[in-house]
Write a structure and sequence with these properties.
The chain has two domains: about 260 residues, Spore Coat Polysaccharide Biosynthesis Protein SpsA, Chain A (Alpha-Beta Complex); about 100 residues, NAD(P)-binding Rossmann-like Domain (Rossmann fold, 3-Layer(aba) Sandwich), CATH 3.40.50.720. Helices cover about 35% and strands about 20% of the residues. It contains 13 helices and 18 strands. An eight-stranded mixed sheet has the order 3-2-1-4-10-6-11-9, sandwiched between helices. It is globular and about 65 Å long. The relative contact order is 0.11.
Length: about 400
Amino acid sequence: MIANTAIHFQWDKMKDKVSVIVPIFNVKKYLGKCINSICEQTYSNLEIILVDDGSTDGSGELCDFYKKTDSRIVVAHQNNKGLVNARKAGILLATGELATYVDADDWIEKKHIENMVKCLKENQVELVCANHTVENENFSNVGKNNISEGVYERDDIIDRSMYYGSFYKFGITQYVWSKLYITSYLKKIQLIIPDDISLGEDVALTYNYLLETKKIAVVKYSGYHYCQRIESMSKNKNPKFDNLILFLKNTLLKGDNYEIFANQLNQYMKLIQLTDKMFEQSGPFDDITNAKRVIVYGAGAMGKKVVQELKNKKVNIVAWLDKAYNITFFGQDIILNPMEFNWSDCTFDLIIIAITDEYISDEIVKDLQGNGIPQHKIKKITRTYINKWVLD
């Protein structure tokens, strides 16, 4: 249990150093851009902690090279112990009063840390929650907190921080890397997260950290660039969901926090189980094993989960469609324009509409039928099914 007994941070004693923690595992191709973006920050009072978690692709050697070029860089090498342990190793080395995370295949804009620190100091908060930029080679958009920009007392937003009232919406995004923390608070939470959590590592930290705060700033700024890659999607093939839920129940559902988080955690549990349930008996895609060639329509959060699940099941995805067709996800999966797709040249057994908004999926069904696609070849997620798993 995490006691809600945080001592308010002493602003008059703040020394302004920021510890930037970068967990690293086999990302040599992208690591240079990441490290350079941190070293080139306009906010110079940094401690850059590179944790090489047993890389075998030369990432560790690249860390050592950069250490020679910038005295602010600290390098730690360890056997591969996973993301949670690498983050622990980083926070144990941190000497800055403030801290933030950067994933090793992402990068940050030059004023990112300066803007975050300025916001934290001016508003005297213990946490800054920013938006972020989602990008790949050909496309970018903004990932947003659903709670509006502003400075809040924790108790004013904690009851909608994890679940914002509708499917796939967090009030405060779960990602740890789009935030600026008080190091002492962060250390308290990070060090108690079990190493064997391999799904929801960010959720385990973010909402427990919120409980340690008194004031939080939510900002529209999006200087963190989250780069979508195929490696990121497939790294956890056997995620330990039960370990995550046990930890969250033991930390979030204690004492006065039970009423706040019981429904939020229930909705989150349904959310992360939903993709698996869709392919089980009575799910909308339960007969997918009978289809050898599948088209996926939808490249949002659910679409990406469905594509990954189909790949795990060795299903042949003959096309991936989305009206945002001018994007290439993960460097190898091409998104095609459904309005220009040549249906007559494509042989398929089934179309999966991987979109949770039933109004949008109904419109897609009409378009497909207008192209001569029979109803029995179209599978969608119904509102009844979403209600069963998410809105109970």
